[in-house]
Specification:
With 425 residues, the protein is an alpha/beta fold. The protein is 32% helix and 13% strand. Helix 2 runs parallel beside helix 3, helix 7 packs across helix 9 and helix 7 packs across helix 10. It is globular. Bound molecules: glutamine (GLN). Glutamine (GLN) binds next to loops. Keywords: ATP-binding, Ligase, Nucleotide-binding, Protein biosynthesis.
């Protein structure tokens, strides 16, 4: 395995002899089901869980001839921004010593950054592909909701999340997207998308001549100075290649983080109810009382962050508070969607720093969950709006820390963000 702890397991899964990905390795995040190979979600609860079937994306990887070199480490059930909440230990950032790799798909980004896999799959509920891609200096794509099947993805917050590629270049990320995109009869939220015809890789032609880019001022306001500087350098680069940019307003994004966490935790509290030691998960024993048995299983199997979210989510959904929290968050979500739609009427894509901060020092964020949640300010609005986004390396700060640039497109506008991103990486 790796010294930076990128893999939870390194059992190899062989794909077909030929295909688009023949000869290439694609590491898979450990919340994506692999038949006969343990899938832990980074949790002690699922330490011994072996799925009886492959996720649709895994089937497609195998059909395309890819080799899966292992399952990658992650924040427990995808809940985190640093890949420090895994029951199997934190992941280190191979691109920035002493720093976190971002999360929750930190293992996937780390193995690609370190060259221990050619490509990887992550999942993105509120930034979990784009954040680690940005922190590890690689490329990550969060597809439009409904482009990629979630069948076999162990759910955290299913109205927000998508599986997507992490890769060293925009073109290779797009190649992987070509393989996994498209409708699936096992996931009724997938749809026939205009453009999901194997042409994403061809869109990575670097041609940004005439491209109109909107820059939401709200996503730069609270960001770290060194990050903002690196962002503008990359924007100058795009301008020199023929793109133009103008400022846009997204007033609703001020409420995105709070709306995201209410919705994500509410859905999580419901989705994680199945881990009770009877249906799924480590047994809590049985002493004549099932309530105690379930409580034991959940007390022992879940880590602190997961417990915090189940409690808060249950609270937000409870009868007396539903209107005050959950319903308000849904209203904010509709507002965020509307803001993005309006901004994208006058721009082909929107650009911002992927993360408002450079990779944090290891160990810094665990005691301060609120600060960690706020780091998701630029990524969570995109999930609330169900739009596609890519994170590409924008450069490094003076201290040598990777900075990512995020490009957001209209629904099913993957070609636009891939084309624009490929002008940088
Ligand atoms: N950091 C966010 C969270 O903890 C996003 C995680 C994700 O996208 N899975 O919820």
């Amino acid at each position: 395995m790796t010294e930076y702890n990128g893999y939870v397991s390194d059992e190899t899964i062989e794909g077909a002899d030929s295909g688009l990905l023949a000869g290439r390795t694609v590491a898979v995040k450990d919340n994506i089901s692999t038949e006969g190979v343990p899938t832990t979600c980074g949790s002690a609860m699922l330490e011994d869980y072996v799925p009886p079937y492959d996720a649709t994306v895994v089937e497609r990887l195998k059909d395309a001839g890819a080799t899966i070199p292992g399952k990658t480490n992650m924040d427990e059930f995808g809940m985190g921004t640093t890949t420090e909440t895994s029951a199997f230990g934190a992941v280190e950032n191979p691109a920035a010593e002493g720093r976190v790799p971002g999360g929750s798909s930190g293992g996937s980004a780390a193995v690609v950054a370190a060259g221990d896999a050619d490509l990887a799959l992550g999942s993105d509920t509120g930034g979990s592909i784009r954040c680690p891609a940005a922190f590890c200096g690689v490329v990550g794509i969060k597809p439009t909701y409904g482009l990629v099947s979630r069948y076999g993805l162990i759910a955290y917050a299913n109205s927000l999340e998508q599986i997507g590629p992490i890769a060293p270049s925009v073109e290779s990320a797009a190649e992987l997207l070509d393989v996994i995109a498209g409708p699936d009869e096992h996931d009724a939220t997938t749809q026939e998308a205009p453009g999901a015809d194997g042409s994403y890789a061809a869109a990575a032609d670097g041609d940004v001549d005439g491209l109109s880019i909107g820059v939401p001022t709200e996503l730069l306001d609270g960001a770290d100075e060194a990050v903002v500087e690196t962002f503008w350098d990359a924007m100058d680069d795009l301008e020199a290649q023929g793109a133009s940019y103008h400022e846009v307003d997204l007033p609703s994004v001020e409420h995105a983080v709070e709306a995201y966490y209410v919705i994500a935790m509410s859905e999580a509290s419901s989705n994680l109810a199945r881990f009770d030691g009877v249906r799924y998960g480590q047994s809590g024993g049985y002493d004549g009382n099932w309530n105690e048995s379930f409580a034991n299983a959940r007390e022992e199997g879940f880590g602190e962050e997961v417990k915090r979210r189940i409690l808060l989510g249950t609270y937000a959904l409870s009868a007396g508070y539903h209107d005050k929290y959950y319903k308000k968050a849904q209203d904010a979500r509709a507002w965020v969607k509307q803001d993005f739609d309006e901004a994208l009427e006058d721009a082909d894509v929107l650009a911002s720093p992927t993360m408002p901060v450079p990779p944090m020092k290891r160990g810094e964020s665990l005691d301060d969950p609120l600060t960690m949640y706020l780091a998701d300010a630029n990524t969570t609005p995109v999930n609330l709006a169900n739009l596609p986004a890519i994170s590409v390396p924008a450069g490094e700060t003076d201290d040598g820390l990777p900075v990512g640039l995020q490009l957001v497109g209209p629904a099913f506008g993957e070609h636009e963000i891939i084309r624009a991103g490929s002008a940088l990486a």
